[in-house]
Amino acid sequence: MEKKNINSVEEVKNKQVILRDYVTGHPKESDFYISTSTIKLQIPPGSNAVLVKTLFFSVDPVMQFHMRKVQHQHLDGYQYYTPGSPINGFGVAKVVDSGDPNFGVGDLVWGTIGWEEYSLIQQPQQLFKIQHTDVPLSFYTGILGMAGITAYSAVYEVSIPKKGDRIFVTAASGAVGQLIGQYCKLMGCYVVGSACSQEKVDLLKNKLGFDDAFNYKQEPDFHAALKRYFPEGIDICYEQVGGKMLDAVLGIMKVHGCITSCGMISQYNIAEPETLKNVMQIVVRRLTVKGFTHRDHHHLYPKLLDTVLPYIRGEKVVYVEDIVEGLENGPSAIVGLFSGRNFGKQVLVVSHE
Predict the structure, then answer these.
(1) pTM for this one?
(2) N or C: fewer beta carbons within 10 Å in the chain?
(3) Which fold has domain 6-142+319-349?
(4) Concatenated DSSP letters for 233-260?
(5) Terminal-residue alpha carbon distance, the chain
(6) Torsion of the alpha carbons at 333, 268, 252 and 277, rounded to the nearest 10
């Protein structure tokens, strides 16, 4: 690589989203602030780091765990944020400079990057090089990114449905749920989803191809609602909500059914987790309950691309995104996730370049 005169390297402003302090309960916009520093558009001499310009960020519920102060951070694998420093998350970026032979200037990548306009990646092995640019680059924050790995592994690896299975998907209009439902439909299943508004219910039924859906906020009795849609019981529940919804699901499952969970968003910001009354149904109905995260399934990414790219190109799968423009609107986008404000996968656009 040609040596550069470090004194002639361009220095630019670098807008960042900073965590003000550790967060308890629901995150608020005031928990963050926007700061502008400067950065040189060159990696440090001798470094194997990669310097990237951010294009898109994925806004994910899991980010709130990174905002908390915990004693044993090494046990759960999360990359916790440091107050006074930029937060980080999954994003799509363009390589500006590189000391890693696997990445060249101009390459497009996705992976964990700082919430800033330019980010120095010290561990570039965590980045994925984007080889397919005939689909929207923003898809690498979702259907072809972390959410995509979660949904793909849920259906094709963790709990594989059979044709004719009765499937229930909670948080069905979100980044993961919308994909799980469509993949199950492609496998010949009957699929019902729950969501938090009539607009999202209409999306599931009219655009995403779910057999049915309901607004859980309008259902005073979750058990009765599920019995209405699953009179013979549920074969597989892909669960992301927890609490009262999970308790109702336990009482509707078929014998030898499976509950597969990658999140429980209703429990994230309450002082005491809700008590489940139907836990004995796990025994009575001989249920399998599986918890998982995307972190155990990144090895499936080549298979995901082989399967999902043809779905996208053939318009067999629809992916709905909720686009927010501007890094300064990042805190609002994060907070909106926990009130259901987003409509589809929440994406933050930093640059269109």
Answers:
(1) 0.90
(2) C
(3) Quinone Oxidoreductase; Chain A, domain 1 (3.90.180)
(4) -EEEEEES--HHHHHHHHTTEEEEEEEE
(5) 25
(6) -160
